[in-house]
Amino acid sequence: MHVHEIIATHPDVHGSVNHALLDCIEHCFDCEQACIVCADACLAEEEVDALKQCIRLNLDCADVCRATGSMASRRTGSNELLLREMLEVCRAACEICGQECRRHAAEHAHCRVCAEACAECRDSCEQAALSVRPS
Fold this sequence. Notes:
CATH topology: Substrate Binding Domain Of Dnak, Chain:A, Domain 2
Largest sheet: none
Low-confidence stretches: none
Number of domains: 1
CATH architecture: Up-down Bundle
């Protein structure tokens, strides 16, 4: 991804970037994609009824990750208070989705991969939230 490079060129950033936040943006979009694919793969499984909650949490997590990644990418102006809240919500969504995917990971490889993406995004959101200082 080009997140670090493009945000560093933003006129309001002046080359000074928050690396924890940039890593989080990348993890958010990666997790979003993993959750979308996992939900779709769950729909293709024979016992789809057993995966309904997993599908729901995957889609919820994907939406939260997309919104958080998009919001964190905006550098014109600032809304650090809301950004910190979004990072916390994203951390929680990734934790919940990751737990559900781990329940199915032994049987479904896509759930294992998704659980890993959720864990990475959860940890990244936690670090980024610590690095964002409300004005």
